[in-house]
From TrEMBL:
Protein name: 3-dehydroquinate synthase homolog
Family membership noted in the UniProt record: Belongs to the archaeal-type DHQ synthase family.
GO molecular function, one term: NAD binding
Species in which this protein is naturally found: Thermocrinis minervae
3-dehydroquinate synthase N-terminal domain segment(s): 1-145
Keyword Amino-acid biosynthesis tagged: yes
Ranges of residues in domain 3-dehydroquinate synthase C-terminal: 158-332
Length: 332
């Protein structure tokens, strides 16, 4: 997850609250006398020369890069120091060089285009961006850009090969603090090597109202994709955790878990194939649980048939505490 910092060059309550509402988690306050006033506006981390959570000039340093000497100075700070760099002409080369050397690197940006570039440089990108602007709309656009640029996955079309009703099992209903749209869902599967895009409960029917904040994700043992390319078991989720939501084009965004509800329900094994590779999941056997067709429309598991095509994601198997590893592994 890329961090969003906002640099307060002069105290303006409207600008600060807009930054917080747009997703900023850290504020840089140049005037120590304003630290407590800023903290009253929200639970947020503050960087300041005095009185903040992090000390500017010690825990966090700022380097204006005018030439190679400045770049080398930024690279020499201890790795536990957060380094903010600003380039006079916003050239990418210094950032490329520093990204290869530092983990705690932040780039000063002035608009959403610079923010999008900074978080994608060398694919890895900077750890976060520091926005300097006094324009409210720019703050909002940068916040939206960071949310939209979290991750892009190449989803694949999986052909259903098997549908098998099972007995009772424990399933996890993931309620988020966000409203999900038609065509969005979560990637889950019996194996991290193959996952289905389980659609959010955005659809109404005669018996149940829509719950667009919810994904009825499936059995407790299954993997779910979370930020930074990692996975968790569904049974591990709890309020405050972050999970990934993807649309049918593979665009991912981070959402927060408001509640993870485990209940005993009749279950259904769904299997499919993509280029000879198996994708499988155990989902609740109910009309409101839906997979996602290639055009983004939802299809209920009770209407699913062999030969139907739905969206999924495949990768090489192998996870250790949710982190992808290269090893020989067979999952059935």
């Amino acid at each position: 997850m890329k961090e969003f910092w906002y640099w307060i060059e002069e105290f303006d309550k409207k600008l600060i609250t807009t930054a917080l509402e747009s997703g900023a988690t850290t504020l840089i306050v140049e005037d120590p006398a304003k630290v407590q006033e800023v903290k009253k506006l929200g639970l947020v981390k503050v960087v300041s020369p005095e009185g903040g959570d992090l000390k500017l000039g010690q825990d966090v340093v700022y380097v204006l890069i005018k030439g190679k000497e400045d770049e080398e100075r930024a690279a020499k700070y201890p790795q536990n120091v957060k380094v903010i760099v600003e380039t006079t002409d916003w050239t990418i080369i210094p950032l490329e060089n520093l990204i290869a050397q530092r983990e705690e690197l932040y780039a000063v940006v002035k608009n959403e285009e610079e923010a999008k570039t900074a978080i994608k440089i060398l694919e890895k990108g900077v750890k976060g961006i520091v926005l300097k602007t006094k324009d409210i709309n720019t703050i909002k656009r940068v916040g939206k850009a960071l949310e939209e640029e979290e991750e892009k996955l190449p989803l694949v079309v999986v052909k259903i090969t098997r549908i098998l009703p099972l007995g009772l099992g424990d399933r996890v209903c993931v309620d988020t603090t966000s409203i999900l749209s038609r065509g969005e869902g979560m990637l889950v599967g019996n194996s991290s090597a193959g996952m289905f895009l389980v659609h959010a409960e955005t659809e109404e029917n005669p018996y149940v109202a829509s719950r667009p904040f919810r994904v009825n994700a499936g059995a407790v043992h299954m993997y779910i994709r979370v930020p930074s390319g990692k996975t968790k078991y569904l049974c591990e989720l709890s309020a405050g955790d972050t999970v990934m939501v993807y649309d049918y084009k593979g665009n991912g965004r981070i959402v927060y878990v408001g509640r993870a509800k485990v209940e005993r329900r009749p279950m259904l094994l769904v299997e499919g194939r993509y280029e000879g590779r198996k994708v499988s999941a155990i989902l609740q056997n109910a009309e409101t649980i839906r997979l996602t067709r290639p055009d983004g429309s939802p299809v209920s598991v009770v209407e699913l048939k062999e030969g139907d095509e739905v969206l999924g994601y495949v990768e090489e198997a192998g996870r250790h505490f949710g982190i992808k590893v290269e090893e020989t592994i067979t999952e059935k």
